[in-house]
Amino acid sequence: xNEKWLNEYDGLVNFKKDKLYCITGPFILGIELIKLxxxxxYRPHLVLYSLYGLPTGxxxxxxxxxxxxxxxxxNINDMQISLDFDQEITEAKNSLNDFLAFKIGCDISIYSFLxxxxxxxxxxxxxxxxxxxxxxxxRYNLALYYSDEKxxxxxxxxxxxxxxxxxxxxxxxxxxxxxxxxxLVGRSRTEHLKIICENKNRKELKNLQRFDFx
Length: 214
Prior knowledge:
This protein is an alpha+beta fold.
């Protein structure tokens, strides 16, 4: 089943069993083919891992301990796509391509990616599966990778959007709004880029193709 996906997305590399990745800017971007228990089927997921760290730490091992975004694919009937191991992937591929505002395995416009992040929080299939603060963290950390100016712009957008929410409810699992915001902006761009560069250059990632945000 891996070969079918690699043939369609030639910018991806078989990183580990059923994990197909590339490096794109400050992220590892890819597709994971997750086998379902007790039946001969699997589900493809779009995944995004940070190279700038997680609350648990900044090493590559900690970055890859869990994705900052993991999104299922759905068919035209809004049912999660499950495939037999030998099944053609046309429906799943079309679903993924329609869902994305960019192509996997090439340089990506930062503006299209940021707009896409805004859109997915309103996606009816994903609304109960993704957490707004975590999407905002991805937005800000990508913007900081791009420039201080872009980071400040995104930060102001986040603050304006947060003022329209019940902050106590939205950020209760993140230590509250003030702590979440403090941790979000607690790193300089110089330090941010240094961590990303160090993780990109780890030998574990040497075989991955590399793309960037433009």
